[in-house]
Design brief:
This protein has 148 residues and is mainly beta. The protein has one domain: OB fold (Dihydrolipoamide Acetyltransferase, E2P) (Beta Barrel), CATH 2.40.50. The chain is built from 1 helix and 8 strands, in the order E-E-E-E-H-E-E-E-E. The strands form 2 sheets. A 5-stranded mixed barrel has the order 1-3-4-6-5. It is globular.
Length: 148
C-alpha cells in the first residue's frame, strides 16, 4: 500500500495539547487551518476555502511542539497523511484528515523565531513535561514568532 506524504502550511487554531498514550508514550495534538489565496486578474488576492487538519506529533517532536507553538502562529507541517472515515450513530458518514507529523516548525516567511537545542540525549527530554523546571527555557520567557 502506498503512503501519501504532505506538507501543510497554515496557522494553529488552538494551543497544542500534550498527552500520553495508555502505555505512557508522549504525543501532542493540534489543529492547523490552511487557507488558499489566489490572485485575481486585477492583482488583488482573494481567500479561498479553509482546510482544517488535525496533526499528531510523537515523542521528542511532540514535546518540542508543545513548548514552541501557540495559537495563531504560522507553522509548516510535513508528515504522513491519514484520512479517517466513520459513521455516526445517526448513520451520517464523517471524514477527518490527520497528519502524523515528521517535521514541524514555524513558517519563517511570515516572521522570525529563535531556535534552542535541547541539552543531552533525546530520550531524557521525553520524561519531563515541556514546562518542567528541568527545561532549558524554565527561567526565561519562550521566544514568540514576530509577524511582519
Amino acid at each position: 500500500m502506498n503512503e501519501s506524504f504532505v506538507t501543510v502550511v497554515g496557522n494553529l487554531v488552538a494551543d497544542p495539547q500534550a498527552r500520553s498514550t495508555k502505555a505512557g508514550k508522549p504525543f501532542t495534538t493540534f489543529r492547523l487551518a490552511s487557507t488558499t489565496r489566489r490572485r485575481q486578474g486585477n492583482g488583488e488576492f482573494v481567500d479561498g476555502n479553509t482546510n482544517y487538519v488535525n496533526v499528531v506529533a510523537f515523542n521528542a517532536l511532540g514535546a518540542n511542539v508543545a513548548a514552541s507553538l501557540h495559537k495563531g502562529e504560522p507553522a509548516i507541517v510535513y508528515g504522513r497523511l491519514r484520512v479517517n472515515q466513520w459513521a455516526t450513530e445517526g448513520g451520517q458518514n464523517m471524514t477527518s484528515v490527520e497528519v502524523d507529523a515528521y517535521n514541524v516548525g514555524h513558517d519563517l516567511t511570515r516572521g522570525q523565531a529563535a531556535f534552542q537545542r535541547w541539552p543531552g540525549p533525546s530520550s531524557s527530554r521525553m520524561t519531563a513535561s515541556p514546562t518542567a523546571t528541568s527545561s532549558p527555557r524554565s527561567t526565561t520567557e519562550r521566544p514568540r514568532v514576530r509577524t511582519t
